[in-house]
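Me: I'm a chemist; would you kindly supply a protein sequence with its structure tokens?

Assistant:
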Amino acid sequence: MTIVKEQILEATDIHKVTEIISIAINKPVIIENKNFELISYSTASESFDQTQQKTILYKKCPVFIIDRLKKEGIVQQLESNEAPIRIAPIEEIGFYQRIVVKAIYEERTMGYVWVQETNTLLSDEEVTFLTEITPHIGQLIHKSYRKGQEHEGKQEKLLWNVLLHEYESENQIRRKAQVASLPLPDRFSVLVMSIAEPAQEPLLNEVVELLSRFKRHKLQVLKTDLQVVAVISGTKDRKGSAIENSRELVEYVKSALTHEEFYSFLIGIGKEYVELIDMRKSFLEALEVIETADFIGPRPDVMPREFSKLGVYRYLAALYEKNNTEHYYNQNLLNLMEKDSVSHSSLLKTLEVYLSNNGKGKHTAAELFIHPNTLNYRMKQIQDLTDIDFEDFNMKSHIYIELLLLNNIPSYYNRYLAAVEEQKSATK
């Protein structure tokens, strides 16, 4: 073991060290940092157990396994005990017996060396060998962490500079990226997820953690106090692939959070581009979606998250200001609001859904969860109470935009409601 120990102490590559250890003791080895995130693993002849396989797949020990280790008191032992710890198997989670040694550098825990003991236990000599080399492993983890920080810091700064339009040409961006070793996408879209208050930052951090585990598509993530910004790559020769990947990423985050947590975010997706100089354009488009959503306070999953689908939503703020200034009301909608308030009906909602589905009755009834006959009855009421010409595209477009303002902006709805009350009083 003396020669092997010398080889390890002279090595500067933690991956090489991991392999040397595994060969010397003939067992699978995994090295993690103090947060149980994967740093290195061996290519040992023995198979990895399910826990180690998941750690390799997710680049981190799964949360449910860490929780189980906490429940068994193992994590607490690791934190308080500097001596090697032998852990009995936990069969129901696929956790084989193993020994773990803490890697300490400058009196700080930098990580852990996990050795799987599937068939035979490590000898006392091998355990002593591990304790003698772990300080060097702690130093390598520390150096790796510092180097990674410096590397990521340069990359983040460059990416922010691209988003903030600090560079004037494609070639300038590519030169800077080469120096910073920043991988550049062939096509991309920028996604922004924004919270309203700094108090929600823990939720923002949770999303950053989720994105770090999303391995299906390439993405680069930046964070501010109130936003997560992700540059999402697409397939070089497949138009629209970056947008598809952005949608998939949003659904991934949605599935991982509670309903309340997910809808705490305002989400915007910029258009897809291939020129790096357009990255700022995609970023600003994503921000425009968020600004629009922030203005109108949209109902969940109604307003588009993609800039390319924003449509008339882009103009709602300007129309809101114009209509308020001019004290404008649409008489047809006032009539429907009055009917809804008296009869507790849902004619305004029905009309909006009908128009958003381009007059398709089957789709409208399905979205409203009503029978087609019920929809027909409501549409007959709408026609009796208004002079809306459903063959007139301009009239339908105008009514639909007004409905978006009514149903998304409480102050606008209340202004109409006050007008309805005046209309009622005038007819008494």
